[in-house]
Write a structure and sequence with these properties.
Length: about 400
Amino acid sequence: MRRLRACLGAAAVVTLAAAGSTALVAGNASGATTALDNRWYAAAPYLMPLDNDPPDPAAIMDATGLKAFQLAFVLAPDGGGCTPTWGGTVPVSSDTAVRSVIDTIRAKGGDVSVSIGGYGGTKLGQACADPAATAAAYQQVITKYGLHAIDFDLEEPEYENTAAIHNEIGAAKILQQNNPGLYVSVTTAGTADGTGWFGKQMLLEAKSQGFTPNNFSIMPFDGGFNGAASQTGALTNFNAILRSTFGWDEATAYAHEGFSGMNGRSDTGEYFTQADFQTVLDYATSHHMDRFTFWSLNRDRQCTPADNGGRTSGTCSSVPQNSWDFAKYSVKFAGVTPPTTTPTPTPTPTPTACKTAWNSATAYTGGSEVSYNKHNWKAKWWTQNEAPGASQWGPWQDEGAC
């Protein structure tokens, strides 16, 4: 499914015994600001702070009134182990780059949630021995950044692993208990019927462990969806699943339900425009749903002419738009009116010279640069015979038109 899968200061900590493990609870030395209203964490769009040409969060805040960002993704180390990293490569313990992003956001009165999991890479639920160990790894993230909110993005292939989902749900419950007031969202795949078999098994796991997050959100895209009507239909069906699983009435189920969309062209070639977002936003607010978010702010800008070739990009939406058009729907969900002035569209960059053409027979190591289909690409890891752009989550990072 979606995505490139994959603050502050030394924290004062206290030790608690919980669920048979030791948990760390952040003190004010972490640099945490006063928590925002939960509606902002529920509205926070996803932002990759280290990949996909990260936009300036301060500029987005100024242009839209947005206050909250969902930073993605915390994973297990690529080399193995039960310690948190950004994207599998940057240890949270030594991170300064993401911390700087969080500092920028908080200095302007905003805040962040952190998302764990996503589509690619190894998840901590897969790498850690049990729920307690998984929770301890995530607690390091909460403590370091002084978090008030966290998102469990449980999807392919992790949610097909029963033991991993047991660890993730168990960890979420422990974190909820040990961090009073922590806003916890759980995001999973969407289907026309609401969610698929593995999503339903995840809900049953939550029920068996007695865990109720602030919301369960579905991602109604990459599954044969066609605009807003198909998405609201999926949300209606998911509400029925929540009711039957937990014994909730309709209103209670909606109060624990969320939407996580994809702006513009999806991975499978579906298109979701600003009008679609408005329709789903109207549905979410009229049904008093708990969450409305999207993937991603990195994509919330106009593609260059060279990019508008019918492909999905991690750095632009592939639909006509002004910069940050889609972020304004999150702002509206939070109950704030975005500025009425139209931001100046992002200037079209001058194409750079093309690198040596990609060759299917050549083995490329991480950092190697090639050109393909009038774009330059950089290898993220060793690869051979994997065409650049064939998969958004593949080994090649798009460096733009050439």
